Amino acid sequence: MSTLKAVRGTRDMLPPETALWNRIEATARDVFARYNFGEIRTPVFEDTALFARGVGEETDIVSKEMYTWEDRARAQSEKTQTLTLRPENTAGVVRAYIEHQLGETGQLQKLYYIGPQFRRERPQKGRYRQFSQIGAEVIGPPSAGSESPLRDAEVLEMLATLLDELGIKGWTLELNSVGSPTDRARYNDALRAALVPVVSQMCADCQRRAVTNPLRVLDCKVPADQPIIETLPVIADSLDEESKKHFAAVTTALDAAGVPYTRNHRLVRGLDYYTRTTFEFTHGGLGAQNALLGGGRYDGLSEAIGGPKAPGIGFAMGEDRLVLTLQAQEAAAPQVPQKVDAFIAPLGDAKDEIKLAQMNAAALVLARELRHAGLWIELGEGSFRLKKSFDVADRTARQIVILGEDELQSGILTVKNFSTGVQTKVPRAELAVFLSN
Ligand code: HAM
């Protein structure tokens, strides 16, 4: 029988790597709490129409990358539906905002999420078919201040703080404005006109995009096309006064807060819902997939999926890419693996099954006592020879506690500290305090 393996583009996360994932998530939750964000959990699959309308039919995500299936009706009361594993979470959050009438509160909603997303992309380093995003959205009625450029600046300043607290070194914030839908229509016309004389020299994808969605030409990575793209008009020249003022207010606040950024005129992002501010934080160590996170403003998304006016801004970080970046940094400056406080080594008589079981049970009781006192404990096995217990303990723990017949009766345990080599007799009542030092 052929062996079964994880599906292409998906991975198992094992210890100790999962500890790094947990550390990243704990830091993110801590930072989100300080900025007064609450957690939202939306389903992993949604009605396909949500993504078609929200993210946009013409985008790569919707046209090529979604995991979509016909979900058969199980009862008369149900209809066969087309469902999709979420390729991103902004559309789901906005759907939930509308469904639960969160706009009725009149307040800004500040929501964060952590969870898996699915895209059928070509797998490579930093790009998977199941990946995890840590994201957040700030959304609300205009009367709650949801359109204010201060919201954009606050989200970007929070991201700079989060990346710094995660210990990510050398990130770059790339910033742009894609303007209002009218600005973008004007820019699309300008692009189309500028592409006419040059498009025949460009790649097949660009030739198609020049007709369907000229903005996407700016995402082209084909080296031969780059000199042509450099000559195309930039979107900044198509922005109206309002969009220009909004962008200037974002950069003024970022300058005041000391958050560094560079303007990238080509940053138009691969999802159709963006308006005005768009951004990515990139990292040189990631190679081709260099975006640690991406986001922007989406002032018309709620209306596009049938909701009230609810401007918003948000981002999603690729958690897999955060892990890769931190692992690369840690490989350069390796950390000492963390060891548990103590290893309990019961000394049983391997030939006497009853005594062995009693000694193992006594060790479990001692481990339980110490764990309840807050210590990190690894539990040995009474049938091991003493030398084997020492070898295992030395690899996993700072100290070893020997528990034999004598120790059990006298209540005085022998503790050896591996780094000092010192052996000490400790009364059971004082053991937890002794081991924690
Ligand atoms: P996105 O740029 O499509 O935006 O994805 C955000 C981040 O998710 C990327 O910068 C990258 O780090 C990570 N990512 C995307 N695809 C993959 C993949 N196949 N493998 C590993 N990581 C990946 C969004 O998803 C928007 N919903 C962000 C947003 C929130 N905009 C406003 N609010």
Describe this protein's structure.
With 437 residues, the protein is α+β, with helices and mostly antiparallel strands. 38% of the residues lie in helices and 22% in strands. It is built from 15 helices and 16 strands. An 8-stranded mixed β-sheet has the order 1-5-6-11-10-9-7-8, with helices on both faces. Strands 13-12-14-15-16 form a 5-stranded mixed β-sheet. It is elongated and about 90 Å long. Residues 88, 90, 119, 121, 126-128, 131, 133, 135, 137, 271, 291-296, 298, 314-316, 318, 320-321 line the site of histidyl-adenosine monophosphate (HAM).
Write the layout of secondary structure elements.
Blueprint: H1 17-34, E1 38-39, E2 45-47, H2 48-56, H3 60-65, E3 68-71, E4 81-85, H4 90-99, E5 109-118, E6 130-139, H5 149-166, E7 171-177, H6 181-195, H7 204-212, H8 226-230, H9 241-257, E8 262-263, E9 275-283, E10 291-297, H10 301-304, E11 312-318, H11 319-332, E12 340-346, H12 353-372, E13 377-379, H13 386-396, E14 397-403, H14 405-410, E15 412-417, E16 423-427, H15 431-436
Parallel strand pairs: 1-5, 7-8, 12-13, 12-14
Antiparallel strand pairs: 2-4, 3-4, 5-6, 6-11, 7-9, 9-10, 10-11, 14-15, 15-16
Protein structure class: alpha+beta
Distance between the termini: 53 Å
**Number of H- or I-type helical stretches:** 15
- Report strand order across the widest sheet: 1-5-6-11-10-9-7-8
Low-confidence stretches: none
Which band does the percent of strand residues land in? 15-25%
The largest sheet is: 8 strands, mixed
* Cα gyration radius (Å): 28 Å
Q: Give the integer mean of the pLDDT values.
A: 95
Which range best describes the helical content: under 10%, 10-25%, 25-40%, 40-55%, 55-70% or over 70%? 25-40%
CA-based shape: elongated
**Number of E-state strands:** 16
Ligand types: histidyl-adenosine monophosphate
